[in-house]
Specification:
The complex is a heterodimer of chains A (about 260) and B (about 350). Helix content of chain A is about 45%, strand content about 15%. Chain A is built from 11 helices and 8 strands. Chain A has an 8-stranded mixed sheet with strand order 1-2-4-3-5-6-7-8, sandwiched between helices. The longest helix of chain A is centred in the C-terminal third of the chain and has 21 residues, at about 235-255. Chain A is globular. Residues about 255-264 of chain A have low confidence and may be disordered. With about 350 residues, chain B is α/β, with parallel strands linked by helices. The longest helix of chain B has 29 residues, at about 105-130. The relative contact order of chain B is 0.12. Classes of the chains: A alpha/beta (about 260), B alpha/beta (about 350). The interface of A and B includes residues 238 and 241 of A.
Chain lengths: ~260, ~350
C-alpha cells in the first residue's frame, strides 16, 4: 500500500504477521492496533504526523488486513495472545501501544496475561460501552459515526471490511460484546491516556470517563468535534499525545536499573 | 476558522472582557480553557459557560507573569483537548498616577503582566499552532495602544508594545510562509468592566470609566469574529475607531484631546482615593464578574436612542427645506420635528449629566 516506508512479515504463533512501517529507523517505535473492520491502513495519517519523531509499526491482527487468520474468528483472548507472541518474536515488548476501538480491548486483555509486554498505552475510543452490550444498541451508533467520519475514511474502512469479510467481523463483534473489559482495566498499570472524540457516538462520554477512572494511571483527553477514529480524523492531536507517552516511557526506562534493561 | 468545536484558551478569564469572551466562545460551541489567578472566580465562570449546551471547560489557575505557569497552561489545554485553536491574551492591569509618584516596582509589574504575559502566551501557543498548521492568536491591546493617556504611562507603554509584538509576529509568520496561523490585535475603547476599580492608583482621585462606555460583550463578539475571519487589527467602539482614524490625520490634536479628556473624565474631580496597589500583586477578593457597574449597556442604548432621535430630526429638517426628500411644502407638522428633536436631545443630556453626577 502507498504511504508506508516498508512492510515486515513475522512468523509467530502459527500466523504470518504483517506490519507496515513508517518513520526513522533506529528511533523509538510505536505499535498500532486497529479495531474491527479495519487494518494497518487506518494508521497512515497518524504515522505521517508522527514520522518526524518516532517510527510507527501498524500491525494487522490475525484475520485482518494482510495477516491471514484462522477460519473461525478469534476471540479477544485469542487476538491478545497472538499479539503477545508477535511482540515477543519482534522483541517489541514495552513499546508504546496506540490502539483504536476494538484494539483497546486487545491491549487491555494483554495486560491480563502478559503484563511484562505492556508499555504506555493510548486507548482511542475504547469499546465496548458497558451500558449498551447489544448489536441492536450499537448498529445505529456505528451508522451515525460513519456519517460523521470524513469521506476519506470510507475507502479505508471498505478495504478493512473486505479483507476481513462480513462473517469474521460479525463473529469478532460478538466476542467483543461479551468481553468484560471494565473488569480488566485495573490490571493495566502502565501510563495510559484515554482519547475520545467529542462527537463519537460509539463510546459516549460517561463510559469513557469510567474507563479513565478505572485505570490506575489513566487520563482522559477529549478532542472537540472529532468522531470515533481519531487516528484518521485528528492525526496531529493523536501524534502529540503519543509523543508525550514516548517521553514518559523513556523516563521510566532510564529510571530502571541497567541490568534489568539489558535482559528485556 | 470555524468556532464550533475549537479549543480556546483565554487569559484573564475571571472577570471583564476575558470572562465575556469565554462565555461568548462557549455559547458558540467551543471548548474553553479559562486561566487567571482566582480559582473560585474561574470555577464560577466555567459553570456559566457550561450552561450553554454543556460546553466543555477547563479551569487552570495561572499567573501570567510566570513563564512556566503559562507553559503548563498550554500543556494542560493540550492534555485535555488535544490541541489549541485559539489563544486570547487578555490579562492586563494598570497603575495610574503622576509619573514620579508611581513606584518603579508597580511600573515593572504592569509591564510584566501586560507585555511579558503576552510574550509568554505567544511563545506557548505559537509552536503548537505551527505544528497544527492552523490557529489564531488574539492579543487584546487597547485604543490606548494608538492614542496615549496621561497619568497612565505603564499601561500606555504596554498597549503600544502589544501592537508592536503582534505586528512583528505577523511578519515573521508571513516570511516563513505559515499561512494558517494568524496573529491579530483587538483595540477596545472604554469597556464596562471591574478594571477601573481594581487599578493601582496614586493620583489621589477615584478612577472612573471615561465615556463613552461600551459593554464587554461587544469586545467578546469582536474577538469571536476575529477568529472566524482573522484580520490584522480591529477597534471596538465607534468612538475608539474615530479616535484611531483621527490620530492618523491629526495626531497632535487627538493627543491633546485625549489628555484633557483623561484629566476631566477618567479621574473624578469630587471623590478622592487613597494610594493603593489595586490588583497588581493580589487579585481582588470577590468572585469576579463581567460588568464593572459602569452601565455600559444602558449607556450604549441611551447613545443609540439619542443618535436615532437626532437623525430623525435631521431628516425631518432637511425634508422641510427640500420638498423632494420628504415632508413637502404642505406638511405643516413636519416643521416642528427638528426643534422638538433638538429639544429632546438637550433634555436627555441634562438628565444624563444629573444622573452621572
Amino acid at each position: 500500500m502507498r504511504g508506508w516506508d516498508d512492510h515486515e512479515f513475522t512468523p509467530a504463533a502459527g500466523y504470518r504477521f504483517h506490519a507496515a512501517r513508517l518513520g526513522p529507523p533506529g528511533g523509538p517505535e510505536v505499535v498500532c492496533l486497529h479495531g474491527i473492520s479495519a487494518s494497518h491502513l487506518h494508521w497512515v495519517r497518524f504515522a505521517r504526523a508522527l514520522a518526524p519523531h518516532a517510527r510507527t509499526v501498524a500491525l494487522d491482527l490475525p484475520g485482518f488486513g494482510r495477516t491471514r487468520g484462522p477460519r473461525r474468528a478469534l476471540d479477544v483472548r485469542g487476538l491478545s495472545r497472538a499479539l503477545a507472541a508477535w511482540l515477543r518474536a519482534t522483541d517489541r515488548g514495552g513499546a508504546v501501544l496506540v490502539t483504536n476501538s476494538a484494539g483497546c480491548q486487545v491491549a487491555v486483555d494483554l495486560a491480563v496475561h502478559s503484563p511484562e509486554l505492556v508499555g504506555p498505552v493510548l486507548l482511542n475510543g475504547p469499546t465496548i460501552d458497558a451500558g449498551a452490550r447489544t448489536v441492536r444498541h450499537h448498529l445505529p451508533r456505528v451508522v451515525l459515526n460513519a456519517v460523521r467520519e470524513p469521506p476519506s475514511h470510507l475507502p479505508v474502512v471498505l478495504y478493512g471490511f473486505l479483507r476481513s469479510g462480513p462473517r469474521r467481523n460479525l463473529r469478532t463483534f460478538r466476542h467483543l460484546l461479551h468481553d468484560p473489559v471494565e473488569r480488566k482495566l485495573g490490571l493495566l498499570t502502565t501510563p495510559t491516556v484515554v482519547v475520545r472524540g467529542s462527537r463519537d457516538p460509539i463510546t459516549p462520554h460517561p463510559w469513557v470517563r469510567e474507563v479513565a477512572d478505572l485505570l490506575p494511571d489513566g487520563r482522559l483527553t477529549e478532542v472537540p468535534g472529532a468522531p470515533h477514529t481519531l487516528n484518521h480524523s485528528s492525526p496531529v492531536e493523536m501524534a502529540r499525545i503519543t509523543r508525550e507517552l514516548l517521553t514518559r516511557r523513556s523516563e521510566s526506562v532510564s529510571a530502571r536499573a541497567p541490568e534489568e534493561r539489558t535482559d528485556r | 476558522m470555524r468556532v464550533r468545536d475549537s479549543v480556546v484558551v483565554v487569559t484573564g478569564a475571571s472577570s471583564g472582557i476575558g470572562r465575556a469572551t469565554a462565555l461568548c466562545f462557549a455559547r458558540k460551541g467551543a471548548a474553553v480553557v479559562l486561566a487567571a489567578r482566582r480559582e473560585e472566580a474561574l470555577e464560577e465562570a466555567a459553570r456559566e459557560c457550561e450552561k450553554h449546551d454543556g460546553a466543555q471547560t477547563l479551569v487552570v489557575p495561572t499567573d501570567v507573569t510566570d513563564p512556566e505557569a503559562v507553559d503548563a497552561l498550554a500543556q494542560r489545554a493540550v492534555e485535555r483537548f488535544g490541541r489549541i485553536d485559539v489563544w486570547v491574551n487578555n490579562a492586563a492591569v494598570t497603575a495610574i498616577g503622576p509619573f514620579q509618584e508611581v513606584p518603579l516596582e508597580d511600573i515593572r509589574r504592569v509591564m510584566d503582566v501586560n507585555v511579558m504575559g503576552y510574550v509568554y502566551g505567544a511563545r506557548a501557543a505559537l509552536p503548537i499552532m505551527r505544528e497544527q498548521g492552523h490557529g489564531v492568536l488574539v492579543n487584546v491591546s487597547s485604543v490606548v495602544g494608538v492614542v496615549s493617556q496621561p497619568y497612565n504611562q505603564a499601561y500606555t507603554m504596554s498597549k503600544f508594545a502589544i501592537r508592536g509584538l503582534t505586528s512583528s509576529l505577523r511578519q515573521e509568520l508571513k516570511i516563513e510562509g505559515v499561512r494558517g496561523v494568524h496573529v491579530c490585535s483587538v483595540l477596545p475603547a472604554t469597556i464596562d468592566t471591574p478594571f477601573f476599580d481594581e487599578a493601582a492608583n496614586y493620583s489621589g482621585r477615584k478612577v472612573l470609566a471615561m465615556p463613552p462606555v461600551y459593554p464587554p460583550e461587544r469586545v467578546a463578539r469582536a474577538i469571536v469574529n476575529m477568529v472566524r475571519m482573522p484580520r490584522r487589527e480591529t477597534v471596538v467602539g465607534p468612538m475608539g475607531r474615530q479616535m484611531v482614524m483621527e490620530s492618523k490625520m491629526a495626531p497632535g490634536t487627538v493627543e491633546n484631546t485625549m489628555g484633557i479628556m483623561f484629566d476631566r473624565k477618567h479621574l473624578s474631580r469630587k471623590e478622592p482615593a487613597p494610594a493603593n496597589t489595586g490588583n497588581l500583586y493580589e487579585p481582588s477578593p470577590d468572585s469576579g464578574s463581567v460588568p464593572g457597574g459602569w452601565h455600559g449597556r444602558r449607556r450604549t442604548n441611551v447613545r443609540r436612542t439619542l443618535t436615532a432621535v437626532a437623525l430623525v430630526g435631521l431628516v425631518a429638517g432637511v425634508g422641510r427645506r427640500m420638498p423632494l426628500v420628504g415632508g413637502g411644502r404642505g406638511n405643516r407638522r413636519a416643521r416642528h420635528v427638528l426643534p422638538v428633536a433638538v429639544g429632546a436631545w438637550k433634555v436627555a443630556r441634562v438628565v444624563k449629566k444629573r444622573r452621572s453626577g
